[in-house]
Amino acid sequence: MAEKNTKKNSKKRKQISEWPRHRIQFLWALITNSYLAGFLQGKIYTGKLKNLCVPGLNCYSCPGALGSCPIGALQAVIGSRNYQWAFYVSGFLIFVGALVGRFVCGFLCPFGLFQDLLHKIPFPKKLKTFRGDRLLRKLKYVILILFVILLPMFLTDILGQGSPYFCKLICPAGTLEGGIPLVLLNPVMRGAIGWLYTWKNALLIAMILLSIVIYRPFCKYLCPLGAIYSVFNPISVFRYRVDKEKCTNCGACARACKMNCDPVKNANDPECIRCGLCKKSCPTGAVCSGWKSEKKETSHGKQAAV
Amino acid sequence: MSRRRWNFRYAGIFLAAAGLCLMIFGIFRGEMSVVFDKAVRICMECIGIG
Fold first, then answer.
1. Which of A115, A183, A189, A194 has a 20 to 30 Å separation from A94 between CA atoms?
2. What is the pairing mode between strands A287-290 and A239-242?
3. Does residue A298 surpass a pLDDT of 70?
4. Are the Cβ atoms of A306 and B2 closer than 8 angstroms?
């Protein structure tokens, strides 16, 4: 009987496809980067939609971008002479985070999709975890506080304006979506490249290589947007639940999770990007997600914590 | 349904509403124009040139 169950489970594991999610990611990336003239002329969109932020990490200097990157926008307002804090952007991030948490990372981030696809490249030894993995994940909070908030706020020029230090020194999404296309398409840009461009391309290459071996290294260790949304995961309106009565503690969900979360211990772990692999891998259908609280559904971890 | 679960649910709704209020406050302060001005010019720092 046990052997039969194991065979059934392994068959189910093989059948799990991430392509339905990838199709949504592709569609969202296309919708939010659909300014085709930008790609043809080496320019960026300058219409009114740029007033609005998109929920994912999407550089506003991408030739196709229709909206603004929330992390870039946050630094722009914090670093401006006239404002000390960005209520518009932080309000937007709180609103999105409180509604869906890191669902944005799993479904609505173009750079997340890029890393997802890179991780599909075969490699002899994929690393699921390593020594110091958990500690390294705290780095994204340090980057958020230091490069996105403190440096643009306090390290200002004589006019009192701060630079977007995260974009300038770290963000590989800006290099991929904005830097490379604009340098290729725009001869003026080509003439202006220097050490910073080399540094940012080196970071992007490192991230590409790491993404083949480790699942979403940028999201796990560096992304300040993921850091913000992760804070809201435990309390967001859209949430995951584990039905205690259906759960057999087989561990299939934890094994399937590429972010190394265990939904049975904490269905709304700050590291969970809500990709839904745990739901698909559960042989009894105990893991579910949704907007409404249902009386029968309970999370082991949360109940234990009460 | 546990009291804690209800608290989580209401915390999410309350924060979403608070976020919306902050957004509106920021828009009235004129922050949107700063975002727009930054986003419609090629951000040299963002692309690794500036």
1. A115
2. antiparallel
3. no
4. yes
